[in-house]
Amino acid sequence: MKSTWREWRHLSSPDIAHLAPEAVAVLPLAAIEQHGPHLPVSVDEDLIHGVMQRAAQAWDGPQIVLQLPTMSVGFSPEHLGFAGTLSLSSSTLIRLWTEVAESVHASGVRKLLLFNSHGGQTAAMDLVARDLRQRLGMLVVSSSWFQLPMDDALAEVSAHEQRFGVHAGQVETAMMLALARPGVNMAHAARFASSSEARAKALPVLGNGHSAKLAWMTRDLNPAGAVGDAASATPELGERLLAASACGLVQLLRDLHATNPVTTRPDEVPKRAAGPGESGL
User: Fold this and answer.
1) Strand runs labelled E in the chain
2) pLDDT tens string 119-176
3) Exposed e or buried b per residue across 94-127, where buried means at least 16 C-beta atoms within 10 angstroms of its C-beta
4) pTM of the full predicted structure?
5) Considering 5, 35, 205, 256, which has the largest number of Cβ atoms within 10 A of its Cβ?
6) In 3-state terms, what secondary structure has residue 35?
């Protein structure tokens, strides 16, 4: 059976026109930025491709998913002190995503998922999504692979690492090991401590992790450009994280298919007619 998860770039214009009205389109949002001395600058792009590939393999049923081309370069000014980082300005980023989404809407798509792999651009996703909803009436949802339910897969990752290992730490390094991408060098992996740990101990409000948000450059957290226990990463952990993220993405897409783009409420499932001897209640 032909998969109903289709790549936009591989379809003809008539195919897209036919599929778009009933589809959920997914716009993958990544970044090209430094990830410490042990990982390549492709991490965010590699991880989103790894999650989406596994989700596509697991996708079944009649609902259409249209995977758009990845926006590989994102908003990464916090990493510009390190060679290899590519970054757009916030205004260019928002305009780029918006204009791509407008083209998708013009092709007939009414439901769009902005699916992200870089924590530094989640706020921009919210701005774009709200604008598209207000102007075009699209159903737009923002999510990142690291926001999806992964409790079981994260069981062996300590609470400390989950809070402070925010960049090129145990989780991202493990996922890159599972993907076996070139450029991973575990000889340079270490436990990269974060300055956030000191703030958490000394500053009750600024350091509590949720009441206030510090604008930081990566060197503010660790001069090596990484934060977290990268040395403890294993490919087995990485594969579990990739699988859990893919499972979460599949369920999210099912949820979008079940959501009315006009009301944003779940579509009602028609009730089965009562059979002989049934009350119908």
Assistant:
1) 5-7, 23-29, 64-67, 111-116, 139-144, 191-192, 228-229
2) 999 999 999 999 999 999 999 999 999 999 998 999 999 999 999 999 999 999 999 9
3) bebbbebbeebbebebbbbbbbbbbebbbebbee
4) 0.93
5) 35
6) strand
